[in-house]
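Methods — Computational structure assignment.
A single polypeptide chain was analysed. Its primary sequence is given first, followed by the predicted tertiary structure written as structure tokens.
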Amino acid sequence: MGMEFGLLATTAAGTYVRVNGSTVKALSTEIVEEAIRIARSSGRGESYASSRSHSVASTAPPAVVVHKRRRHIEMPEFRKEPAVNAPIHSAVA
């Protein structure tokens, strides 16, 4: 059968199920509770993140934040000048 993966969950009735994608499979409550008890007694019951948090924080160098300088282009201001053909267009209108 091989190794199987999935999320361990409990139903509203209190039974254990393994959820893998859209598949839900009922698990034996006795076997699951025994596995949880063994994991807690051997120290493997804590999450991976919490087991790593105390050792990583003390050995990791501080984070370096680099702020890139942005180029700011100044746009020239345009003055309102009369159009080249302004007198011709005003006479026609």
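Note: The radius of gyration is 35 Å.
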